[in-house]
Amino acid sequence: MSNSLDLLKALVAFDTTSRESNLHLIEFVRDYLANFDVPCELVYNEQRSKANLFATIGPADRPGIVLSGHTDVVPVDGQPWSVAPFQLTERDGKLYGRGTADMKGYIACVLALVPSLVKAPLRLPVHIALSYDEEVGCLGVRSLLKALEQRPVKPMLCIIGEPTELKPVLGHKGKLAMRCDIHGEACHSAYAPLGVNAIEYAAELICELGRIGERLKAPEHHDARFDPPFSTVQTGVISGGKALNIVPADCRFDFEIRALPSQDPGVVAQELKTYTEQQMLPRMRAVSDQSAIRFSELSAYPGLATDAHSEAAELIAAFSGSREFGTVAFGTEGGLFDAAGIPTVVCGPGSMDQGHKPDEFVSLEQLSGCDDMLQRLLSSICR
């Protein structure tokens, strides 16, 4: 337990906010693994300012288990922290610091298991996978998975340690984030009909999104395993206009679709594009032929829906000690691992109720429980 604590203290001290580099943390982990003669591979981004890490312990010629986590954290800007966010603080059985729950607590437990892993007579390999830029769209793990595709042996299971209070999770929604840019025609507000008001057309599109969202709530589209039990859409950011007495020529808004694993979020985006082409652009171009509406993808990741009767589910039930499989509302890299042919479950210490908030924490009890779960995993692959 003290080893997990020491490692968590070291990991929290690295400011790996997504806008920053994660290389100091990755190099720390690389050097830590080197102390146990565990080689690792780094997969860099194009700028070589960030990297994924992949390491294998045990026989590499057979399918193994991936213990996966992301190294980046969300910003602390403007949040009222009562403790230093990048310094681990213990108080009343809780460990405070940015990333303690999401998800450096899990990474610390995985690293604490390494001394036992290298000494054990493993019949299956254990892989450690650390990624970058999960918080801004699951970006880094894609190049890592691409590198894994070149390997002759594919892992049999991936355990992503996002905070689930150590309850095994087999499903989450997928996400598609989009940006819409509307270009109209500016003019003096006294002659508003001579212009094309980009804000008003943006408002019309946002209202259409709302109508699509209402249709998605219909009972025939529900999946009771999820909360809410239907796919959702929402607009999160909007900007436009220069002054009240100028008809605005430009407006931009960002929206997202969080879709049940059985539904394609691209269908919603296409429905909105069709509405744009058929209902809006003809009216806009009747006033100004320079009018335009453009859609661009900001980020996307697939949902996860691991079969509760699959081998992956049986394995995580054995490790976690629970067959009460659940789902979560937040997204993970699990859908990408699963799409790459690696069955995936989500199970880690802490709760996302604490994630992304000031005074984020993971309890000592949860950290200890994660150590125990990983020890059970170790025991099961040594038999």
From TrEMBL:
NCBIfam families: AcOrn-deacetyl, PRK07522.1. Signal peptide: none annotated. PROSITE patterns: ARGE_DAPE_CPG2_2 (PS00759). One of its GO terms (molecular function) is acetylornithine deacetylase activity. GO terms for biological process: L-arginine biosynthetic process. This is Acetylornithine deacetylase (ArgE). It comes from the Bacteria. The keyword Cell inner membrane does not apply. Its cofactor is Zn(2+). Residues 171-279 form the Peptidase M20 dimerisation domain. Keywords: Amino-acid biosynthesis, Arginine biosynthesis, Cobalt, Cytoplasm, Hydrolase, Metal-binding, Zinc. InterPro entries: AcOrn-deacetyl, ArgE/DapE_CS, Bact_exopeptidase_dim_dom, Peptidase_M20, Peptidase_M20_dimer, Peptidase_M20A. It holds the Pfam family M20_dimer. Belongs to the peptidase M20A family. ArgE subfamily.
